[in-house]
Amino acid sequence: MPDTEHPSVIRSSPPHPVPYAFYAAIGTWKYRRPPCPTCEWHWQYPAEPLLVQWEPYRDNIGDFSYNGPTGEYNFIVTDQVARFFEQRHFPCELRRIEYVKPRRRGKLPCVPFPYQGPRQLWPECTSYLELDQEASGVKLESSCPDCGDVRHTFRYEGIVIPKNNWSGEPMFRIKTNGWSAATFITADAKRQLEDAGFTNLLCRKAGQITE
Ligand SMILES: [Zn+2]
Fold first, then answer.
1. Rounded Cα–Cα distance for residues 150 and 41 (Å)
2. pLDDT at 94
3. For residue 7, which of 194, 192, 163, 184 has the smallest C-alpha distance?
4. Rounded to the nearest whole angstrom, what is the distance from the C-alpha of residue 95 to the centroid of ligand 1?
């Protein structure tokens, strides 16, 4: 299955916003530990429930919805996609969402509040793969002696994953991307999702899994 050797990342391509409603995730934020006085890393992370605030733009909801117009951060899915992820063993935890009243701006349409659309869940990918750091152009950028936070070059394209580092999972994150929610799927997984007819799945080529 050579097609599975080309992972794609779930994120839309700027500059054009997607033709479906998108949201801002405004929390819930929790602290893993107090902010670090040395490197100033905040040590906050988005915890369940994800607080979703629909943005005035469109009021039609895709099967995939993205945090922001360019889909660079987390994403949420309809119940049908969530069931699909479970049945096809996409490694993720399906977390709860709560909706926050949108800020009204101008006359742009917006998903109504209180929310009455399709049931949605927040998939948090639980599988992390190790890149070939040299082939992917990833370097250690900083390592804090105080809190232990380690940073590498962030990569969402040009990634090279040795096949031995991959257990066949259809969805994964990249270990050296650290706290980023950037989520990757294989080309095979992308085709499965497209064949199922899910709307607003936005991917671009991210790299490859090599022998
Ligand atoms: Zn630190």
1. 11
2. 97
3. 184
4. 29
Q: What is the Å distance from ligand 1's center to 68 Cα?
A: 28
Question: From the CA of 36, how far away is ligand 1's center (Å)?
Answer: 5
Quote the ligand 1 centre to 34 CA distance (angstroms).
Answer: 10
Q: What is the pLDDT of residues 31-60, one digit of tens each?
A: 989 999 999 999 988 899 999 999 998 999
CA of 139 to the centre of ligand 1 (A): 18
What gap in Å lies between CA 41 and CA 148, rounded to an integer? 10
Q: Residues for the chain: how many in total?
A: 211
Q: Which two tokens stand for residue 12?
A: 């839309």
pLDDT digits (tens, 9 = 90+) for 62-77: 999 998 876 667 899 9
> pLDDT tens across 108-154, in order?
899 999 999 999 999 999 999 999 999 999 999 999 999 999 999 99
Distance 196 CA to ligand 1 centre (A): 44
Least Cα distance to 59 among 136, 121, 118 occurs for 118
- Compute the distance between CA of residue 161 and CA of residue 124 in angstroms, rounded to an integer: 21
Report the separation in Å between the CA atom of 143 and the middle of ligand 1, taken as the mean of its atom positions: 8
